[in-house]
Amino acid sequence: MKGTEEGKGRAAGWLDVAVLAAFALGLRLIDLGHPPDIDELHHVLAARSLLADGTLSINGGVPYDRAVLFTYLVAGLFAVFGESLQVARMPAVFAGTALVVVLFLWVRSVGGRTAAWVAALLAAVYPNGVFLSQLSRFYTLQVLLFLVGTIAVYRLVTSAATLRPRTRVALAGAAVVSWATAVKFQMTCIVGIAAVVTWALIAAAPDVWRWLKRQRHATWMIAGALAVVLLAAALVVRNGTLINALNTFRYADPWAAEHRDNVRFYHWFFLEQFPTAWTLLPVAAIIAIAAFPRMGTLCASVFGLAFVFHSLAAWKHDRYIAYAIPMFFGLTGLAAARVLPPLKRAAEAVVARLPGVNARPALVRWGAGALLAGCVLFAMIGNGAFPTVVRMLAPSSGATPRPFRGQADWGAAAEQLRAIADSVDVVVGSSDMKSIYFLGRVDYILEAQRLYINGEWTPEFTIHAKLDRPAISKPESLSRIMQCEPSGLIVTEYGQWKQTWGIPAPMADYLVANTERILESDEWRIRAFRWDRSMPGTAECDQHNGTGNANANGNANGER
After folding, report:
1. What is the CA radius of gyration of the chain?
2. 87-120 pLDDT tens trace
3. Where would a tag sit more exposed on the chain, N or C end, judged by fewer CB atoms within 10 A?
4. Which residues contact 543 (CB under 8 A, 6 or more apart)?
């Protein structure tokens, strides 16, 4: 009989996983062909180049080697299934789905089924998480790998006495490999790794101390460890690593400069997405830590340090703190596991007082369930994440952009614009990667931030190294091109229009006054212009194709 019950329990557990995985995957497959974010085209175009000639060069520029493992993964999928945005996004889709399942299994192993479902459902419907799972970008893989490494360390610390030596080595290896790969994708998770390591050292300190007291040379061992730490700190200061880290901490590209000193950026972000869980986070942390001390302190440590660090850092974006979000959901789930049972009993007491219900236990249970379901539904409507993900994945309603769906739709305009691009002498694009992907070319980049290299503004016509094309931002630069080239096409996006980091106002006004507008679509969020001169340029115009080389570092060129 006991074996039968255990078998049923295991079957129910796997059914939970299957239902959750299907739900998370289904959400992430909706509208998977949405217009691309400019950054994900780096991997798409580099993968195309890799298959074509074995290089990672985009448009003849320097090789694109950021998160090169992800580019190779995309290229492999292209080789098997053919090139498309949907295929390129599949690694992120499956990593995002796996992230939800792994979080569920981890929280369930410590806090039980209720805690696991709360944490996993929050992760499944989190709008930013769904969005990142629909990009040909490495963020969901980074978050998944960071979580896997964290779980490995947690298991090492909490179950060390019962683990075989071989298992300990395997867990340590899994943590190192997972974290090293996550850092290669995005270095922000170093903050989370530091938090986990600190937690592990504190959690293991009593056992280490007892072990040290049994050693004959404990004093020398402690002195040696301190000497290694001090030597490492001295090397970090001496070789410039500390200065570089501080410069990175205070650096932000022009498009992100607005929030450079906004230390409340992430506070408002969580308040908008999960106001209930966010305002009650201190209470949830107390409940979670009291009930599940080790997991509660780990989740609180990682999320707390990440929140403070990224709030103080200059460059802010929701995806930079993505690796810590599962810890926020974990804390919420652990607290819910302790709050929901007494809440259920309170609901049963309320329903039992209704006339004619007290003597009917089944009605009490059903009534309490309906009451709790109403509370959950009210919380879902009142917390921004849930309405946001619905509007994000719902069919488009005209020109009103949906959340996380505000990208210009070059694909919709591609057929019309490509015919013109094939007939003119030059193509000027404000979104260079999209111009290459949808139109097959870009000759000049019309975007101010492409001239912002390593914290300094460079001259007009400086070569953007990744694409081997000159960038411009001023009317006189465009005038020079128009004087030298008989005809040209200029494609711009609404989101860059009259932005100091994109198409500055003087340039926008010059375009309107001196070129022919051939396309303006509120639905596609694109403005396109052209010029057509009968006289060709003169010999000296050959000199306008660039004055310098830009740094090839993606983060110094607007890449997120």
Report:
1. 28
2. 999 999 999 999 999 999 999 999 999 999 999 9
3. N
4. none
